[in-house]
Specification:
TIM Barrel; alpha/beta; two-stranded antiparallel sheet; eight-stranded parallel β-barrel
Length: 230
């Protein structure tokens, strides 16, 4: 089983390496599902041995519908994070009607390929109306993996679709389960055939004076999951 830790900090990346994760999904603004982090943070995390840094490319919170100026920003961010040492990028572009925005995704994948970056289609996948057809398109576009909760708020509730996606993927694309993954359901998700598990592992507490929240790494959760597979 491959483990991917979603984190917004260098300390989280160190913890991921310590407990045997293969990669991190590096984000800012975890409270809104993750936005593009600073290239400086990517560069720092890329110095950690044995951890692949995969960077969220998401310029704004809310929907996954992007304008031409948003797309230009995303292309520039891919270039900056490649230069900073990223191994992959994570993104997903949809239309207003919750269909795959084919050309935008092709444009971003082609740019990433030029820079030798892997591409993950993130949980925008869980909003599409036709997941099996969308999976076919992602394979054809050239994504290496898709992060999904099987169309449900948490992955264990989407296990039926996850099984179907794994069967169709047939090793052409990695199916990674994310959302609500923990020690109580990780083995059941493995039995569904998913190739990787994606989860956060941190403590959150509000800052004083209403200035957002502070996240600090929590080794308990990652250790409880990884130890199941040792």
């Amino acid at each position: 089983m491959i483990f991917e830790l979603c984190t917004d900090s260098f300390e989280g990346a160190i913890m991921a390496q310590k407990y045997g994760a293969k990669r991190i999904e590096l984000c800012s603004a975890l409270s809104v599902g993750g936005l593009t982090p600073s290239p400086s943070l990517t560069a720092l995390c890329a110095t950690i041995q044995e951890i692949e840094v995969h960077v969220m490319i998401r310029p704004k919170e809310g929907s996954f519908v992007y304008s031409s100026s948003d797309l230009e920003m995303m292309l520039n961010d891919i270039q900056l994070h490649a230069k900073a040492g990223a191994r992959g990028v994570v993104f997903g572009c949809l239309t207003e009607g919750n269909q795959l925005e084919i050309q935008q995704n092709i444009t971003l994948v082609e740019e990433a390929r030029k820079l030798n970056l892997e591409c993950t289609f993130h949980r925008a996948f869980d909003f599409v109306d036709s997941p099996m057809n969308t999976l076919e398109s992602l394979i054809n576009i050239g994504f290496q993996r898709v992060l999904t909760s099987g169309g449900m708020p948490i992955a264990i509730d989407g296990i039926g679709l996850l099984k179907d996606l794994v069967k169709r993927a047939d090793q052409e694309i990695e199916i990674m389960a994310g959302s609500g993954v923990n020690a109580s359901n990780a083995l059941e998700l493995q039995n569904a055939g998913v190739h990787a598990l994606h989860f956060t592992s941190h403590h959150s507490k509000p800052y004083e004076h209403d200035m957002g929240t502070s996240n600090s790494p929590n080794p308990t959760k990652i250790n409880s999951i990884v130890s199941l597979f040792q």
